[in-house]
Specification:
single chain, 187 residues, alpha+beta, 2 domains, 3-stranded antiparallel sheet, 9 helices, 42% helix
Length: 187
């Protein structure tokens, strides 16, 4: 729990051959509380929503508005999380919780995905900088245009940008022509 900032997954117990009965004992004693299926939190710690949500839904990655925020391409903190899942993923519980769900073909799902740290220091999976730009351009009709334009402007000014990688991903996601137009205008 210490290495995950107060969060414990039932899969962590299996790694150390610890019986799950200890979970119920700790819950009964008030030392930990069940946050979600298979996810427990130390009673005295702050809940890491991003980490817990992803631990509960292992086939999910943070994308679009949430990834923009994680990469500092927008100042707007997301009101609801934008999550990408592979086509065919059963996402009813995510939708019911109010999250914005995007679907992508399974063979493109892991393209441009990076592991980063949440605000609480836990590892989370999100789309990388260039993949995020491709995603927002692909889904621009479902997003606020000032947010898209602002993110594109910040991306062009970023020292971490990789235009060649962006064009490569844009080709995979079939938005190369549109991305090229945006980038050429902004450069």
């Amino acid at each position: 729990m210490a290495s995950q900032n107060g969060t414990l997954l039932t899969s962590d117990l299996a790694k150390f051959n610890i019986p799950r009965t200890y979970l119920s004992i700790f819950v009964r004693n008030g030392e930990i509380e069940r946050v979600s299926r298979g996810v427990y939190q130390a009673s005295a710690s702050i809940e890491d929503e991003l980490f817990i949500l992803q631990a509960s839904h292992r086939s999910s990655i943070y994308s679009h508005e949430t990834a923009l925020y994680l990469h500092d391409l927008t100042d707007r903190s997301p009101l609801r999380y934008s999550i990408t899942v592979p086509v065919g993923y059963h996402s009813v519980s995510l939708i019911q919780d109010g999250h914005k769900i995007f679907y992508v073909n399974r063979n493109l799902f892991d393209t441009g995905v990076v592991t980063m740290k949440s605000a609480h220091g836990n590892p989370i999976r999100a789309t990388g900088l260039e993949r995020t730009i491709c995603d927002i351009v692909r889904s621009r009709n479902q997003m606020e245009m000032p947010l898209v334009y602002g993110a594109l402007r910040r991306y062009v000014k970023s020292t971490d940008r990789d235009i060649d990688l962006l064009y490569n991903y844009a080709g995979h996601f079939r938005v190369q022509k549109i991305i090229r137009q945006y980038i050429e205008v902004l450069l």
